[in-house]
Amino acid sequence: MKKILLSLAVIFVMSSFTATNTDAEKMNVEIPTIAEAGCARDCVDYSLETIEPMNDTYKRRMSTYLWIYEICYNRNCKK
Amino acid sequence: MKYILLISFYLFTIDTNSQIINNNGKVHYTVTFSPTKIKGYLTNQRKALKNKKTMKIFDDGYLNSKNVEAILKFNKNESFFKYKEQLRNGSKHQKDLLSVIIGVEEKFYSNLSTKESLTLNCHLLGECFLISSPFNTWKLTQETKVIGKYICYKAEYVNKTGGAKRKITAWYTPEIAVNFGPGGYNGLPGLILQLDDETILFSASQIQFNSKEKITIERPKKGKKVSEIEFNKIIKEVFEKIK
Known about the structure:
The structure holds two protein chains of two kinds.
Chain A: H1 2-18, H2 23-26, H3 39-51, H4 58-76
Helix pairs in contact in A: 1-4, 3-4
Chain B: H1 2-9, E1 13-14, E2 25-33, H2 35-48, H3 52-64, E3 68-74, E4 78-84, H4 97-102, E5 107-111, E6 116-121, E7 129-132, E8 139-147, E9 150-159, E10 166-173, E11 191-196, E12 200-209, E13 224-227, H5 228-242
C-alpha cells in the first residue's frame, strides 16, 4: 500500500512538472479557496469533492480524480 | 454531430471474402461516451458541481472529448483489445476526459480455452496490475437490430462489481462466429458490434477477416496478478487513505 501511495505521489509531482499549456490554463480556471500553503492538499479535497456525484466504478472515479487533480494543481500550485 | 459520425461508421468497409477460414481478424471500434452517461451528467452530476469553472471543465470533458479509436485482434482462441491513444491539441500531457475515463492505456486479453479474461493496467496506481475477471454471464434476448449489413441480437448483464451497478448492453451478430468483443467483453455467440456500459459506447467501424498479415496474440505477462475484486478493493483503500 505504501508503494502505491508513493507511486501516486510521484505521478502527481511528475505530471505537474511536465504538463504545459493545459485546458485548465486556457480556460483560466479559478479553483476557490486554494491557500498558498497546503495547495496540493486543497486540490486533493477539491478533486474528491468534485468526483463525489460521479456514479461510476472505482477505477473510473480514480482516473477522473487524477485528471481533475492535475488540472487543479497546474492552475493553482505550480510556480 | 458525434452521432451522425457514428452512424456513418456503421457503413462498414468489409473484406467481402468474409468466410472465416482461419478465424483471424481485426475489428476497429469507435469509442464515445454513452448517451446514457451524457444524459446522466446533464441531469444529475452537473447540478452537483459547485462552481461554474468546474462545470466548464466537465462540460468540455463530456461534450467535446474526441472519439477514441480502438482495435480488437483475434484468432481462434484468443483476442487482444487496445485503444489508440489520442493527444489533445498536440499536448503530450493533458488527456480528454473520455480517454481518462476509459483508461486509454489499458489492454485486454481473452482466451476462450483457458477462460481467461485479463486487463493490463499500468497507469492508475503507479505500477502494473494484471487483473483477472470472470467471463461475462450474459442474458440473451430475441431483440434484434441491423448494424451495417448484419442482423444483431441484444444481450445484457448487470455488473455489480467495482462500486457501481451497471447494465451492460451488447449487440452481437451470430453471422460472424467470433466470441469476442471490445473492452474485455466476450463470451457471446457472435462478434459484438456495439456495446454500451452506460458510460462508454463501443461501435464497430471496420471489420477485416483472414488478413494475410499473421495475427500473433501474446498473453500479457507483466504486472501484479490480482482479481477484479482485489483491484477494486485496492482503489477503494487508496481513496480512503487520500481522504
